[in-house]
Amino acid sequence: MIVLNDLIHLKSHLRSHWIDITDKVQAVVSRSGIIEGICTVVCLHTTASITVNENADPDVEKDFFKMLEQLIPINASFRHVEGNSDSHIKASLTGLSAQIPVSGGRLVLGTWQSVYFCEFDGPRSRKVSVTVMGQ
Amino acid sequence: MIVLNDLIHLKSHLRSHWIDITDKVQAVVSRSGIIEGICTVVCLHTTASITVNENADPDVEKDFFKMLEQLIPINASFRHVEGNSDSHIKASLTGLSAQIPVSGGRLVLGTWQSVYFCEFDGPRSRKVSVTVMGQ
Amino acid sequence: MIVLNDLIHLKSHLRSHWIDITDKVQAVVSRSGIIEGICTVVCLHTTASITVNENADPDVEKDFFKMLEQLIPINASFRHVEGNSDSHIKASLTGLSAQIPVSGGRLVLGTWQSVYFCEFDGPRSRKVSVTVMGQ
Questions:
Q1: Mean pLDDT over residues B117-135, rounded?
Q2: In angstroms, how far is the first alpha carbon of chain A from the final one?
Q3: Which residue of A10, A118, B7, B66 is 20 to 30 Å from B104, comparing CA positions?
């Protein structure tokens, strides 16, 4: 069995947007030499998250962040004084990690799927953990 | 160590409903021969998801999809022109994958838990990836 | 390869709150002897969940549960007669499991991250499954 833990470094450039990290995650899988296994992508922050969604139409991203802002407005009545309570809640709702199977040395993704880092409190420097386990 | 990657094929029959796939997932676990490990169930689409929830009262499913429809209405003001922006958002909120421990060759689930494929843009033919890893 | 499946037993004391289980999860990791791998934390109930979020300011917890209650009120028009339809929906939205990498024998968590059991229908006695896999 092989286990490879690695880090991806990112810079977000807006308060809320997503960044396609599929190629960076695939690079870690390729470096691991693992042919069959699981890749686990984990956000190491509490105001950002990881999801898998459509990579074809950029409007999906715009609809996604606009709807989240409507559901959990930045200026709702919050107690936490840092002005990012909405970001913490959006992070837990969209999920801190993603699992992608690895087969034939490649991430197993559907035709339209990419792996996204979701920024909810940018712009910031961010770290994503990638662990590949398999054989 | 053993790794088995397999696919489950499904047909959804409504725009929004869930399908209990616990038996199909257990069948992959049994075929793998793995006694102790982890099973990872991943949706390969961007308008559907995987969750674990109650299998006893069918009203839980009805309440679940009705509340999601109230929160993220199909006809909200979206830019994506395919009419399924709500489905993309519901998919990321409910989660693209589930992890279920395997012990004694069986999925470790609570008394009332089943594994569900959540359709948000059916009816469609769908694929779910199941990876079992362990020994 | 080593696989260790274990259980954490908890008692929640309110209808809705979270419980920091990071130390209990780390104890399972330490007992496993695994240096590099993945830890999977799974909720075995359908009205509770697992998330990772901030451990510094207790107001984050209060904002989190208040916002979820606003989005999915306990007394919305539900069919399920047990009075906890909101809890089932909140569980699926916040997620039944979390994955945390293990490196150097320690959970890989960001500076402000803790692993939380989220109770949405307490007070109750609860069980959380912890599986550590690696070498």
A1: 98
A2: 5
A3: B7
The whole-number mean pLDDT for each consecutive block of 10 residues of chain C, a chain of 135 residues, reads 97 98 98 98 98 96 98 94 95 98 98 97 98 98
pLDDT of amino acid B110: 97
Structural domain tally of chain A?
1
Q: Is B33 left (phi over 0), alpha (psi -120 to 50) or beta?
A: left
Contact B85 A36 (CB under 8 A): no
Contacts of C88 in chain B (CB under 8 A): 53-54, 60, 63-64
Residue B20 has pLDDT above 90, yes or no: yes
Whole-angstrom distance, CA of residue A65 vs CA of residue A17: 7
* CATH number, domain with residue C95: 2.60.120.460
Q: Can you give the residue range of the structural domain that contains B120?
A: 2-134
Cβ <8 Å between B103 and C5: yes
Average pLDDT score over residue span B5-17: 98
Q: Confirm if B133 and C133 have CB atoms less than 8 A apart.
A: yes
- DSSP result, C84-111: -HHHHHHHHHH-SEEEEEEETTEE---T
Low-confidence ranges of chain A (pLDDT < 70): none
Rg (CA), chain A: 16
| Pairing state between β A37-43 and A125-134 | antiparallel
CB contact under 8 A, B46 and A113: yes
pLDDT of residue A92: 98
Q: Rounded to two decimals, what is the model's pTM?
A: 0.98
Measure the CA dihedral C38/C43/C44/C47, to 10°: -160
